[in-house]
Amino acid sequence: GDGARDGGGGGEGGAHAYFKTLLEGIQSSDPKVEAIVANSVWAEGGVLEAFKDTCKTSFNAHSLPLTGAEAINAWVGEQTKGMIKRLLEQKPDGPAVLLNAVYFKGEWKHKFDPAKTEGGVFRGFGGSTQDCKMMKSDSKRTLYSETDSSHLVLLPYGAGRFTGVIALPKKEGPAALAGAVSELFADAGSFSRALAAQHPRHVVLSLPRFKVDYGAKSLKPALKGMGVVSGFRPGGGFLRMTADPSVFIQDVLHKAVIEVRAFCPCIRGGGDRATHGARGGGGGGG
Fold this sequence. Notes:
Blueprint: H1 2-6, H2 11-26, E1 33-43, H3 49-59, E2 61-65, H4 69-79, E3 96-107, E4 118-123, E5 129-146, E6 150-157, E7 162-169, H5 174-184, H6 190-196, E8 199-208, E9 210-218, H7 220-225, E10 248-261, E11 266-278
Parallel strand pairs: 1-2
Antiparallel strand pairs: 1-3, 3-11, 4-5, 5-6, 5-8, 6-7, 9-10, 10-11
């Protein structure tokens, strides 16, 4: 109802207040951690000013003219400090593109000694091997937890407000990996319960120096599998954004880059998600 939209602890108003507080809380005051969450709305004519105002107030999202892919890619590159240089290949159809960019760079609280980094071999679950540089640590105070199928090591950054979690399945093979992931995320609280069981333990850790580049990939199939269906078809579901009842989400794209380096003990990553409404039929998004 209107009361839920306008404020209070629940409904749309409560959700807006929650995300505003969440975004403000992510911005770190730790000098050894840089965490940035940036949002933007790229719109053609037809997007309601009230929608733009809500995006600015609750999500600190600036409104920009939807002119083409190059301007969007430049914004993404700037917000992710150059880690993601290209998200879209062409200007998307439809009245709007909603963008979210995340950048994180943190220094390990307990640093890896660069002198102990040495050559090693990383073995994939499919049987493949790859030469790599292995960072080493041997500590009796490493934060450790485990589940029935996984070993977990927690590596805090900076003052400890942010933590990296390394999970290693107890058995080898693709089936063991899938089972470990399923157990860790079996329900809304399973991952939190696993982390809550952490305790100091002697751990000899070898962590490869690596860089992973994912996407841009469509999240549309995964979202539909989770029950998010109505937003991907016309039906007036976005009348708070535009007066055009034929607008729907054409696609949701995600791209991420994560880099773990040995000699500069930090992790950097960026993620971008683009959603845009489209008039007419569905299909691949930009």
